[in-house]
Design a protein that fits this description.
The chain is mainly α and 231 residues long. The protein is built from eight helices and no strands.
């Protein structure tokens, strides 16, 4: 984080993305180390500060790819690029960066704790995943994705991330991106008003495809989670 802090505060897109990833990894590491609340809050505050810019960047990538795919005129792309850059500048001006989080060391015995947390999380994630798939509420899918990401980083510490988990998270990521794009298009109807209907249809299709991909992978995913009597 120290190496990219100045770029982050300046709003560099790559640095914003790296800050989000590092904060997620730090969350998992601090958790297995049973770190104090102050350290956890420092990384949490950084993640929250970077979130609006990162969401903007991801949404913009999807919108521009969609416009290109739909074959819009160059003038429409130029209009989008200009208005999207202006929107990002406003978001950056509103961003209040916290103090840079300090480094930390993993406490002794963290591997044992990581294995314990991974096992416990797995049982909870199985139930949470089943509820998300059955209910279909966007927030349930989103909350499950966040927990799965934390689970993935915990497994990464142990050097054992199953491919099916990566594939599920990839599909859930596309689902969340679609939700972000759809929320933006409904909240700001003046944005891309000439292509709004086609963009909404595209993202609704992407959302459905992502959900179906997760349903397809779910049986294999459940094999990762231990089931105990009484669960």
């Amino acid at each position: 984080m120290k190496a990219t802090w100045d770029e982050l505060c300046a709003g560099d897109e790559v640095a914003v993305h790296e800050a989000r990833k590092l904060s997620r990894r730090a969350q998992a590491e601090l958790r297995v180390s049973d770190a104090g609340g102050r350290k956890r809050r420092a990384w949490r505050d950084l993640r929250r500060a970077a979130a609006p810019l990162r969401d903007h960047d991801v949404t913009g990538e999807h919108l521009r790819a969609a416009l290109t795919e739909l074959g819009v005129e160059d003038s429409t792309l130029a209009y989008f690029d200009q208005t999207w850059a202006e929107r990002r500048s406003r978001l950056l001006a509103q961003t209040v960066w916290p103090e840079r989080p300090r480094g930390f060391d993993l406490k002794s015995g963290w591997r044992k704790e990581a294995r314990h947390l991974a096992e416990r999380d797995g049982r909870h994630l199985l139930k949470q995943g089943q509820a998300a798939l059955n209910g279909g509420e966007p927030q349930a899918w989103h909350d499950w994705r966040k927990r799965l990401k934390r689970y993935r980083y915990t497994l990464e510490l142990l050097g054992q991330v199953p491919p099916v988990l990566t594939e599920v998270l990839k599909a859930l990521g596309r689902l969340q991106d679609a939700e972000l794009v759809l929320a933006l298009l409904h909240a700001e109807p003046a944005l891309l008003r000439y292509e709004r209907a086609r963009l909404i249809a595209r993202e609704e299709a992407a959302r459905h495809a992502a959900q179906e991909r997760v349903r397809e992978l779910f049986p294999a995913l459940t094999g990762l989670f231990p089931v105990q009597s009484g669960d």
